[in-house]
Amino acid sequence: MCRFVAFDLAGIEAEEGAPLPERVLSGAPRFRTWNLEEAFDGTLFAGVWESTPGHWRIEYDEWEFCHILSGHSVVHEEGGESHTLKAGDSFVTRPGFRGSWEVVETTRKEYVIRL
Predict the structure, then answer these.
(1) How far apart are CA 36 and CA 56, in angstroms?
(2) Would the pTM count as exceeding 0.90?
(3) Could you tell me which Gene3D superfamilies the record lists for this protein (predicted)?
């Protein structure tokens, strides 16, 4: 069994999606997700996610590390700061994070999620 997973999207079909309609604040954002790794009985995921412009409410019950590859987004923390994100930025959201994600320019990120 190979224990090395390259973040290579060649030959991998993206899952298409969107935020739940009741969470959308503006626009019509569409997602593409390339899940490259699933481990530990479905409690760890890693891959690449992309969204077109739009703004929606977010609620995290999981821990997530993100590294922005391209685009421009703003994550607004409920009752707190807004965080502008561009290529090269990395961050972690912890369980209980609430707010909204605003994609200004189509954004692509690498992620690792731990449930």
Answers:
(1) 25
(2) yes
(3) Jelly Rolls
